[in-house]
Amino acid sequence: MINQFRKLNPINLILLLAYTFFMRIAIFYELPAQLNFDFLEPFARLLINVDLDNALSPSANIFIASTLVFIQALIFNRVANNHNLLAKPSFLPALMYVTGTSLFMPFMVLSPALITNFLLIWLIDKFLKLNKSANSITTVFDIGMIIGVGTLIYFPFMAMLLLIFLALLLFRSFNWREWVAGLVGFLTIFFFLAVFYYWNNNIVSFYQIWRPLGSKFPSVFKINYNDYLVLIPVTVIIILASLQLRENFFRSFISTRKAFQLLFFMFIVAGASFYLKPHFRTWHFLLCVPPGAVLLAYYFSNAKIRWFYEILFVLFVLSVQYFLFV
């Protein structure tokens, strides 16, 4: 299967679609009785008040989520290929993205994190274009606005602001206007939100938006480790990918090296940003899937021993299915 997705063959579109729904057999087999979907953060519902809790049945919720994952995988695949992140263009980024979004049951339903992954993929594309433009102030401003919109949907998305400065350090020589442009773009979204609150005589509620920033970091976590055994094969593949990347690091283009450094920091920031949400859910870690999928795809794109990487991927998929059903 890996060898098939190493090629840019149109038939892979059909195979990817079938694979997307195959990875969700477990949740279709045993549909939840009820699924809630909050499209926006509570503070943004004054702008758009959309109640989807009762509008979608569980089956419709999961079907739409699966369709969105498939679309995201195709967009993500195009971004990865356009920026030459792998040895050669392929469908592996899309395959790994779909696999990553199938690790846990909560990943398979509509959630704010799933919606913001559209913006996260867009951000990856924007970040990787920074070193290709002579004047990137407009691009950085756009990035700030994208993060602002993402924050309206899912508050922890705000943590992506850190990546603006990391990306500028990696890709650009210092220009204070570029550093300010990202913050101005982000604040522009919340300036208009504040104006809207003011027009509705509700400006006091606007200040409540920022209360999670003062939350204390939780000292105790309740974790059922059996739920996360599926991450063992993921960890093995990531270790193999890291060794492969280390071996090829200084033989890669400088832009590719910097891209992987940025994606590494994005993975860390996305995972750690759960701190910004007092009551986070497992689906929060969908934000880690795009940068993580690039690393997984990198290994399977560069692996040499066919029987080994094909068996490794099959075992990976079977372990995911096993833990989903069990």
Mean pLDDT: 83
- Rounded radius of gyration (Å): 20 Å
Number of helices: 14
Terminus-to-terminus distance: 25 Å
Which shape, going by the Cα principal axes?
globular
The domain tally reads: 1
Give the H and E element order. HHHHHHHHHHHHHH
The share of residues in helices is 55-70%
The main β sheet shows up as: none
State the low-pLDDT regions, or none.
none
Question: Care to describe what's here?
Answer:
- The chain has 14 helices and no strands.
- With 326 residues, it is mostly helical.
- The chain has one domain.
- α4 (58-82) packs parallel to α6, α7 runs parallel beside α9 (176-199) and α8 (161-171) runs antiparallel to α12.
- The longest helix has 25 residues, at 58-82.
- This is Beta-carotene 15,15'-monooxygenase.
- Pfam families: DUF6427.
- InterPro entries: DUF6427.
- Keywords: Membrane, Transmembrane, Transmembrane helix.
What are the main properties of this structure?
326 residues; mainly alpha; 14 helices; 61% helix
Write the layout of secondary structure elements.
Blueprint: H1 2-5, H2 11-22, H3 25-29, H4 58-82, H5 92-100, H6 112-128, H7 137-153, H8 161-171, H9 176-199, H10 203-207, H11 231-248, H12 254-272, H13 289-302, H14 306-325
